[in-house]
Write a structure and sequence with these properties.
- With 134 residues, the protein is an all-alpha fold.
- The protein has one domain.
- The chain is 61% helix and 3% strand.
- Strands 1-2 form a two-stranded parallel ribbon.
- The longest helix has 17 residues.
- The N terminus is likely disordered.
- InterPro entries: DUF6323.
- Pfam families: DUF6323.
Length: 134
């Protein structure tokens, strides 16, 4: 099992406000209900992959990067964040490489763009190949 540091959850509401102010210019918004749902998706993902603890800040990191995608529409934003959360933990559980979360999310995003917004097994394989190059 891999262990991750738990971030202070007291700052989540403040971070949600900050992230919403950043993503609002692109027409996106994460409601408190959406954030709670994303936290549940995250818990399921790290438990499914036998990872312990969680970094709730990864939701904000993902939210900030996926807003750049030309392959989504406003109504797909939360779903894409869910997909990235699952990709993040699925791929983290398949490697022993050490990489900062921000770098890893950027790598996932770059692979996602290279695959023209297609999320499938080939994307996971591409991410893992890129990770091994690190």
């Amino acid at each position: 099992m891999k262990y991750y540091v738990i971030k202070d959850n007291k700052s989540n509401s403040h971070q949600l406000v900050e992230v919403n102010s950043e993503i609002a210019a692109d027409g996106y918004f994460i409601s408190p209900e959406d954030f709670q749902h994303l936290q549940e998706v995250q818990q399921q993902a790290y438990k499914r992959n036998n990872l312990v603890d969680m970094n709730s800040n990864i939701i904000f990191t993902i939210a900030n990067i996926v807003k750049q995608s030309r392959y989504i529409h406003v109504d797909q934003y939360i779903t894409l964040i869910e997909d990235f959360i699952n990709l993040f933990y699925d791929c983290k559980s398949r490697t022993t490489k050490v990489i900062y979360d921000d770098e890893f999310v950027s790598m996932i995003y770059d692979c996602y763009i290279a695959r023209h917004g297609v999320i499938d097994l080939e994307l996971i394989q591409m991410i893992l190949k890129e990770l091994e190059k690190q």
